[in-house]
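I would like you to help me understand the sequence and C-alpha coordinates below and explain how sequence relates to structure.
___
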Amino acid sequence: MAQLNLPVPGGTLEPYATSQPRDFANDETNDLPRIAFAAAHVVNEPLTERDPWIDTAIDWDATLAYRQHLWKLGLGVAEAMDTAQRGMGLDWNASLELIRRSVRAAEGFDGTAVIACGVGTDHLPPDPALRIDDVIRAYEQQAEAVEAAGGRIILMASRALAAVAEAPEDYVTVYSRILGQLKEPAILHWLGEMFDPALAGYWGDANHMAAMDTCLAVIEANAEKVDGIKISLLDDEKEIVMRRRLPEGVLMYTGDDFNYPDLIAGDEEGYSHALLGIFDAIAPAASAALQAMARQDMGAYHEILAPTVPLSRHIFKAPTRFYKTGVVFMAYLNGHQDHFTMIGGQESARSLQHMAELFRLADKAGLLVDPEMAADRMKTVLSVNGIVG
Protein backbone atom coordinates (compact mmCIF):
# COMPACT_ATOMS: atom_id res chain seq x y z
CA MET A 1 0.00 0.00 0.00
CA ALA A 2 1.28 3.47 -0.92
CA GLN A 3 0.36 6.79 0.65
CA LEU A 4 0.24 10.15 -1.10
CA ASN A 5 -1.66 13.42 -1.11
CA LEU A 6 -3.87 14.04 -4.13
CA PRO A 7 -5.67 17.18 -5.31
CA VAL A 8 -9.42 17.33 -4.72
CA PRO A 9 -12.04 19.81 -5.94
CA GLY A 10 -11.67 23.13 -4.19
CA GLY A 11 -7.92 23.36 -4.64
CA THR A 12 -6.85 21.36 -1.58
CA LEU A 13 -5.06 18.05 -0.99
CA GLU A 14 -6.34 14.91 0.70
CA PRO A 15 -4.45 11.78 1.78
CA TYR A 16 -4.99 8.74 -0.40
CA ALA A 17 -3.92 5.14 0.22
CA THR A 18 -3.69 2.74 -2.70
CA SER A 19 -5.29 -0.68 -2.60
CA GLN A 20 -3.92 -4.04 -3.68
CA PRO A 21 -3.62 -4.45 -7.46
CA ARG A 22 -5.85 -7.04 -9.04
CA ASP A 23 -4.21 -10.25 -10.21
CA PHE A 24 -5.74 -10.58 -13.66
CA ALA A 25 -5.46 -14.11 -15.03
CA ASN A 26 -4.06 -13.83 -18.54
CA ASP A 27 -2.93 -17.36 -19.26
CA GLU A 28 -5.41 -18.50 -21.92
CA THR A 29 -5.37 -15.77 -24.52
CA ASN A 30 -6.12 -17.90 -27.57
CA ASP A 31 -9.60 -18.39 -29.00
CA LEU A 32 -11.18 -15.38 -27.32
CA PRO A 33 -14.92 -15.21 -28.07
CA ARG A 34 -14.72 -11.69 -29.53
CA ILE A 35 -12.30 -9.97 -31.85
CA ALA A 36 -10.73 -7.32 -29.65
CA PHE A 37 -8.49 -4.59 -31.01
CA ALA A 38 -6.78 -2.10 -28.74
CA ALA A 39 -6.11 1.18 -30.51
CA ALA A 40 -2.52 1.59 -29.37
CA HIS A 41 -0.73 4.79 -28.36
CA VAL A 42 2.79 5.82 -29.31
CA VAL A 43 5.61 6.66 -26.91
CA ASN A 44 7.27 10.04 -27.36
CA GLU A 45 11.06 10.36 -27.48
CA PRO A 46 11.77 13.37 -25.23
CA LEU A 47 15.55 13.60 -25.81
CA THR A 48 15.44 14.32 -29.53
CA GLU A 49 16.26 17.89 -30.53
CA ARG A 50 13.12 19.25 -32.16
CA ASP A 51 10.21 21.66 -31.79
CA PRO A 52 7.89 19.44 -29.69
CA TRP A 53 4.64 21.14 -30.76
CA ILE A 54 5.54 20.71 -34.42
CA ASP A 55 7.92 17.79 -34.97
CA THR A 56 7.37 14.10 -34.25
CA ALA A 57 9.89 11.95 -32.42
CA ILE A 58 8.91 8.40 -31.44
CA ASP A 59 10.62 6.04 -29.02
CA TRP A 60 10.41 3.04 -31.31
CA ASP A 61 11.60 0.46 -28.78
CA ALA A 62 9.03 1.43 -26.14
CA THR A 63 6.29 1.86 -28.73
CA LEU A 64 6.82 -1.59 -30.21
CA ALA A 65 7.25 -3.17 -26.78
CA TYR A 66 3.78 -1.95 -25.88
CA ARG A 67 2.32 -3.61 -28.95
CA GLN A 68 4.02 -6.86 -27.95
CA HIS A 69 2.44 -6.46 -24.51
CA LEU A 70 -1.01 -6.21 -26.13
CA TRP A 71 -0.45 -9.20 -28.41
CA LYS A 72 0.69 -11.35 -25.49
CA LEU A 73 -2.65 -10.60 -23.82
CA GLY A 74 -4.48 -11.89 -26.89
CA LEU A 75 -5.57 -8.45 -28.08
CA GLY A 76 -5.20 -7.17 -31.61
CA VAL A 77 -3.50 -3.86 -32.38
CA ALA A 78 -5.35 -1.14 -34.28
CA GLU A 79 -2.35 0.77 -35.54
CA ALA A 80 -1.86 4.45 -36.36
CA MET A 81 -5.35 5.44 -35.28
CA ASP A 82 -6.48 8.51 -33.36
CA THR A 83 -5.25 6.96 -30.09
CA ALA A 84 -1.75 7.19 -31.58
CA GLN A 85 -2.43 10.92 -32.03
CA ARG A 86 -3.10 10.54 -35.73
CA GLY A 87 -3.92 14.04 -36.92
CA MET A 88 -2.90 15.44 -33.51
CA GLY A 89 0.89 15.26 -33.75
CA LEU A 90 1.41 12.04 -35.69
CA ASP A 91 1.63 12.87 -39.39
CA TRP A 92 1.31 10.49 -42.34
CA ASN A 93 5.05 9.89 -42.79
CA ALA A 94 5.48 8.92 -39.15
CA SER A 95 2.26 6.87 -39.32
CA LEU A 96 3.53 4.87 -42.27
CA GLU A 97 6.84 4.17 -40.54
CA LEU A 98 4.89 3.08 -37.45
CA ILE A 99 2.74 0.76 -39.57
CA ARG A 100 5.76 -0.79 -41.28
CA ARG A 101 7.55 -1.42 -37.99
CA SER A 102 4.46 -2.83 -36.28
CA VAL A 103 3.62 -5.17 -39.16
CA ARG A 104 7.18 -6.52 -39.02
CA ALA A 105 6.94 -6.90 -35.24
CA ALA A 106 3.69 -8.87 -35.60
CA GLU A 107 5.47 -11.38 -37.82
CA GLY A 108 7.47 -12.49 -34.80
CA PHE A 109 4.33 -13.94 -33.20
CA ASP A 110 3.95 -16.79 -35.72
CA GLY A 111 0.60 -15.66 -37.04
CA THR A 112 -1.09 -15.08 -33.68
CA ALA A 113 -0.59 -11.30 -33.58
CA VAL A 114 -3.54 -9.49 -35.16
CA ILE A 115 -2.97 -6.01 -36.59
CA ALA A 116 -5.01 -3.61 -38.70
CA CYS A 117 -3.78 -0.21 -39.82
CA GLY A 118 -5.36 3.17 -40.28
CA VAL A 119 -5.72 4.61 -43.79
CA GLY A 120 -6.91 8.18 -44.15
CA THR A 121 -6.28 11.42 -46.00
CA ASP A 122 -4.37 13.34 -43.34
CA HIS A 123 -1.43 14.12 -45.63
CA LEU A 124 -3.77 16.21 -47.79
CA PRO A 125 -3.19 19.90 -46.93
CA PRO A 126 -6.40 21.82 -46.18
CA ASP A 127 -7.38 23.89 -49.21
CA PRO A 128 -10.74 25.38 -50.18
CA ALA A 129 -10.03 24.32 -53.75
CA LEU A 130 -9.95 20.59 -52.88
CA ARG A 131 -12.27 18.33 -54.83
CA ILE A 132 -13.70 14.86 -54.31
CA ASP A 133 -11.13 13.42 -56.72
CA ASP A 134 -8.34 14.82 -54.52
CA VAL A 135 -9.79 12.98 -51.54
CA ILE A 136 -10.00 9.76 -53.54
CA ARG A 137 -6.36 10.05 -54.64
CA ALA A 138 -5.29 10.71 -51.05
CA TYR A 139 -7.07 7.60 -49.80
CA GLU A 140 -5.59 5.60 -52.68
CA GLN A 141 -2.06 6.73 -51.83
CA GLN A 142 -2.31 5.62 -48.22
CA ALA A 143 -4.16 2.39 -49.01
CA GLU A 144 -1.52 1.40 -51.53
CA ALA A 145 1.28 2.11 -49.04
CA VAL A 146 -0.35 0.12 -46.24
CA GLU A 147 -1.08 -2.85 -48.50
CA ALA A 148 2.53 -2.76 -49.73
CA ALA A 149 3.64 -2.92 -46.09
CA GLY A 150 1.50 -6.02 -45.57
CA GLY A 151 -1.10 -4.31 -43.42
CA ARG A 152 -4.81 -4.91 -43.22
CA ILE A 153 -6.78 -1.67 -43.63
CA ILE A 154 -8.99 0.33 -41.31
CA LEU A 155 -10.56 3.01 -43.51
CA MET A 156 -10.58 6.08 -41.28
CA ALA A 157 -12.90 9.05 -41.55
CA SER A 158 -11.52 11.95 -43.59
CA ARG A 159 -11.52 15.56 -42.48
CA ALA A 160 -10.94 16.56 -46.10
CA LEU A 161 -14.00 14.61 -47.25
CA ALA A 162 -16.12 16.17 -44.51
CA ALA A 163 -14.99 19.60 -45.70
CA VAL A 164 -15.63 19.16 -49.43
CA ALA A 165 -18.59 16.77 -49.61
CA GLU A 166 -21.76 18.54 -50.70
CA ALA A 167 -24.19 15.63 -50.39
CA PRO A 168 -24.40 12.05 -49.08
CA GLU A 169 -23.75 10.84 -52.60
CA ASP A 170 -20.20 12.18 -52.37
CA TYR A 171 -19.50 9.77 -49.51
CA VAL A 172 -20.96 6.90 -51.53
CA THR A 173 -18.71 7.80 -54.45
CA VAL A 174 -15.52 8.04 -52.42
CA TYR A 175 -15.99 4.92 -50.32
CA SER A 176 -17.17 2.80 -53.24
CA ARG A 177 -14.12 3.80 -55.28
CA ILE A 178 -11.69 2.98 -52.49
CA LEU A 179 -13.31 -0.23 -51.31
CA GLY A 180 -13.50 -1.52 -54.86
CA GLN A 181 -9.72 -1.35 -55.19
CA LEU A 182 -8.70 -3.05 -51.94
CA LYS A 183 -7.08 -6.48 -51.89
CA GLU A 184 -8.82 -7.56 -48.68
CA PRO A 185 -11.96 -6.49 -46.81
CA ALA A 186 -11.48 -3.38 -44.68
CA ILE A 187 -12.89 -2.13 -41.39
CA LEU A 188 -14.69 1.19 -41.77
CA HIS A 189 -14.45 3.76 -39.00
CA TRP A 190 -17.19 6.26 -38.28
CA LEU A 191 -15.61 8.67 -35.81
CA GLY A 192 -18.09 11.05 -34.21
CA GLU A 193 -17.68 14.78 -33.81
CA MET A 194 -17.18 14.36 -30.05
CA PHE A 195 -13.81 12.79 -30.92
CA ASP A 196 -13.03 15.19 -33.77
CA PRO A 197 -15.15 18.33 -34.31
CA ALA A 198 -13.93 18.51 -37.92
CA LEU A 199 -15.97 15.36 -38.65
CA ALA A 200 -19.35 16.87 -37.76
CA GLY A 201 -21.96 15.96 -40.37
CA TYR A 202 -20.05 12.93 -41.61
CA TRP A 203 -21.88 10.79 -44.17
CA GLY A 204 -23.62 13.96 -45.30
CA ASP A 205 -25.98 14.67 -42.41
CA ALA A 206 -25.70 16.11 -38.92
CA ASN A 207 -28.46 13.72 -37.81
CA HIS A 208 -26.74 10.46 -36.91
CA MET A 209 -29.69 8.30 -37.87
CA ALA A 210 -29.92 9.89 -41.34
CA ALA A 211 -26.14 9.60 -41.69
CA MET A 212 -26.44 5.92 -40.74
CA ASP A 213 -28.64 5.31 -43.77
CA THR A 214 -25.89 6.56 -46.08
CA CYS A 215 -23.21 4.56 -44.29
CA LEU A 216 -25.30 1.40 -44.51
CA ALA A 217 -25.92 2.02 -48.20
CA VAL A 218 -22.14 2.10 -48.73
CA ILE A 219 -21.71 -1.13 -46.76
CA GLU A 220 -24.54 -2.93 -48.54
CA ALA A 221 -23.21 -1.95 -51.97
CA ASN A 222 -19.69 -3.12 -51.07
CA ALA A 223 -20.35 -5.88 -48.53
CA GLU A 224 -17.72 -8.22 -49.97
CA LYS A 225 -15.05 -5.58 -49.29
CA VAL A 226 -16.22 -4.65 -45.77
CA ASP A 227 -15.11 -6.81 -42.85
CA GLY A 228 -16.97 -4.59 -40.41
CA ILE A 229 -17.47 -1.11 -39.10
CA LYS A 230 -16.33 0.59 -35.91
CA ILE A 231 -18.61 3.39 -34.78
CA SER A 232 -17.48 5.87 -32.17
CA LEU A 233 -20.56 7.88 -31.27
CA LEU A 234 -20.65 7.16 -27.50
CA ASP A 235 -24.30 6.15 -27.91
CA ASP A 236 -25.07 2.49 -27.28
CA GLU A 237 -28.62 2.70 -28.67
CA LYS A 238 -27.41 3.97 -32.05
CA GLU A 239 -24.78 1.26 -32.21
CA ILE A 240 -27.34 -1.46 -31.50
CA VAL A 241 -29.70 -0.08 -34.15
CA MET A 242 -26.90 -0.12 -36.72
CA ARG A 243 -25.63 -3.53 -35.62
CA ARG A 244 -29.02 -5.05 -36.29
CA ARG A 245 -29.13 -3.51 -39.77
CA LEU A 246 -25.73 -4.69 -40.98
CA PRO A 247 -25.65 -7.17 -43.87
CA GLU A 248 -24.96 -10.76 -42.91
CA GLY A 249 -21.26 -11.35 -42.41
CA VAL A 250 -20.38 -7.69 -41.73
CA LEU A 251 -19.19 -7.22 -38.16
CA MET A 252 -19.84 -4.42 -35.70
CA TYR A 253 -16.78 -3.23 -33.75
CA THR A 254 -17.74 -1.09 -30.83
CA GLY A 255 -15.85 2.14 -30.43
CA ASP A 256 -18.04 3.16 -27.49
CA ASP A 257 -15.70 3.82 -24.59
CA PHE A 258 -18.69 4.55 -22.33
CA ASN A 259 -20.79 1.39 -22.80
CA TYR A 260 -18.43 -1.33 -24.04
CA PRO A 261 -19.13 -4.14 -21.52
CA ASP A 262 -22.79 -4.56 -22.46
CA LEU A 263 -22.21 -3.95 -26.16
CA ILE A 264 -19.53 -6.65 -26.29
CA ALA A 265 -21.66 -9.03 -24.19
CA GLY A 266 -24.53 -8.46 -26.63
CA ASP A 267 -28.18 -9.41 -26.54
CA GLU A 268 -30.51 -11.98 -28.07
CA GLU A 269 -30.01 -10.44 -31.51
CA GLY A 270 -26.24 -10.10 -31.62
CA TYR A 271 -23.15 -8.51 -30.15
CA SER A 272 -20.28 -6.18 -30.96
CA HIS A 273 -16.63 -6.99 -31.31
CA ALA A 274 -14.21 -4.36 -30.00
CA LEU A 275 -11.91 -1.71 -31.42
CA LEU A 276 -11.35 0.55 -28.45
CA GLY A 277 -8.93 3.18 -27.25
CA ILE A 278 -9.70 2.25 -23.65
CA PHE A 279 -8.44 -1.30 -24.26
CA ASP A 280 -4.96 0.23 -24.51
CA ALA A 281 -5.30 1.52 -20.94
CA ILE A 282 -7.12 -1.48 -19.42
CA ALA A 283 -5.56 -4.26 -21.51
CA PRO A 284 -5.04 -6.83 -18.69
CA ALA A 285 -8.65 -6.41 -17.52
CA ALA A 286 -10.00 -6.58 -21.08
CA SER A 287 -8.11 -9.81 -21.74
CA ALA A 288 -9.16 -11.39 -18.44
CA ALA A 289 -12.80 -10.45 -18.99
CA LEU A 290 -12.84 -12.02 -22.45
CA GLN A 291 -11.23 -15.15 -21.04
CA ALA A 292 -14.05 -15.30 -18.49
CA MET A 293 -16.55 -14.96 -21.34
CA ALA A 294 -14.81 -17.85 -23.11
CA ARG A 295 -15.46 -19.94 -19.97
CA GLN A 296 -19.10 -18.77 -20.13
CA ASP A 297 -18.61 -17.03 -16.81
CA MET A 298 -20.48 -13.84 -17.57
CA GLY A 299 -20.61 -12.92 -13.91
CA ALA A 300 -16.82 -12.70 -13.81
CA TYR A 301 -16.81 -10.88 -17.17
CA HIS A 302 -19.00 -8.09 -15.84
CA GLU A 303 -17.30 -8.05 -12.43
CA ILE A 304 -13.91 -7.44 -14.06
CA LEU A 305 -15.07 -4.74 -16.46
CA ALA A 306 -17.56 -2.88 -14.25
CA PRO A 307 -14.93 -0.86 -12.31
CA THR A 308 -13.12 0.03 -15.54
CA VAL A 309 -16.15 1.92 -16.87
CA PRO A 310 -15.89 4.92 -14.47
CA LEU A 311 -12.21 5.14 -15.40
CA SER A 312 -12.99 5.03 -19.10
CA ARG A 313 -15.77 7.61 -18.83
CA HIS A 314 -13.34 9.86 -16.99
CA ILE A 315 -10.55 9.43 -19.55
CA PHE A 316 -12.99 10.07 -22.41
CA LYS A 317 -14.93 12.92 -20.81
CA ALA A 318 -15.45 16.09 -22.85
CA PRO A 319 -13.47 17.44 -24.58
CA THR A 320 -13.24 13.79 -25.65
CA ARG A 321 -10.49 14.41 -28.21
CA PHE A 322 -8.02 14.82 -25.32
CA TYR A 323 -8.50 11.25 -24.10
CA LYS A 324 -5.05 10.31 -25.41
CA THR A 325 -3.51 12.15 -22.47
CA GLY A 326 -5.17 9.80 -20.00
CA VAL A 327 -4.22 6.71 -22.00
CA VAL A 328 -0.55 7.71 -22.01
CA PHE A 329 -0.69 8.63 -18.32
CA MET A 330 -1.90 5.10 -17.54
CA ALA A 331 1.05 3.67 -19.49
CA TYR A 332 3.40 5.90 -17.51
CA LEU A 333 1.90 4.93 -14.14
CA ASN A 334 2.26 1.25 -15.01
CA GLY A 335 5.88 1.45 -16.16
CA HIS A 336 5.41 1.00 -19.89
CA GLN A 337 7.33 4.24 -20.48
CA ASP A 338 9.79 6.18 -18.38
CA HIS A 339 8.25 9.63 -18.69
CA PHE A 340 4.95 11.43 -19.07
CA THR A 341 5.48 13.39 -22.27
CA MET A 342 3.59 13.14 -25.55
CA ILE A 343 4.13 14.20 -29.12
CA GLY A 344 2.69 17.62 -29.72
CA GLY A 345 2.98 18.46 -26.03
CA GLN A 346 -0.39 16.80 -25.41
CA GLU A 347 0.53 15.85 -21.84
CA SER A 348 -0.74 19.33 -20.97
CA ALA A 349 -4.21 18.70 -22.43
CA ARG A 350 -5.74 17.58 -19.12
CA SER A 351 -5.67 19.22 -15.70
CA LEU A 352 -3.85 17.99 -12.62
CA GLN A 353 -7.26 17.40 -11.01
CA HIS A 354 -8.15 15.18 -13.96
CA MET A 355 -4.97 13.13 -13.59
CA ALA A 356 -5.47 12.74 -9.83
CA GLU A 357 -8.97 11.38 -10.34
CA LEU A 358 -7.66 9.04 -13.03
CA PHE A 359 -5.16 7.70 -10.50
CA ARG A 360 -7.91 7.03 -7.96
CA LEU A 361 -10.18 5.32 -10.49
CA ALA A 362 -7.37 3.18 -11.90
CA ASP A 363 -6.50 2.09 -8.37
CA LYS A 364 -10.12 1.21 -7.57
CA ALA A 365 -10.25 -0.91 -10.74
CA GLY A 366 -7.13 -2.80 -9.62
CA LEU A 367 -5.24 -1.57 -12.67
CA LEU A 368 -2.14 -0.11 -10.99
CA VAL A 369 0.26 -3.01 -11.45
CA ASP A 370 2.76 -1.72 -8.88
CA PRO A 371 1.03 0.78 -6.56
CA GLU A 372 4.31 1.95 -5.00
CA MET A 373 5.79 2.77 -8.40
CA ALA A 374 2.54 4.36 -9.57
CA ALA A 375 2.38 6.51 -6.44
CA ASP A 376 6.00 7.61 -6.88
CA ARG A 377 5.28 8.58 -10.47
CA MET A 378 2.13 10.44 -9.46
CA LYS A 379 4.19 12.32 -6.87
CA THR A 380 6.71 13.23 -9.59
CA VAL A 381 3.95 14.74 -11.73
CA LEU A 382 2.59 16.59 -8.68
CA SER A 383 6.02 17.98 -7.82
CA VAL A 384 6.53 19.28 -11.38
CA ASN A 385 3.34 21.26 -10.75
CA GLY A 386 4.65 22.64 -7.48
CA ILE A 387 2.90 20.21 -5.14
CA VAL A 388 5.18 18.54 -2.62
CA GLY A 389 4.15 16.55 0.42
The beta strands are 3-8, 12-17, 36-39, 76-79, 115-119, 152-155, 186-191, 226-232, 251-254, 273-276. The mean pLDDT is 96.
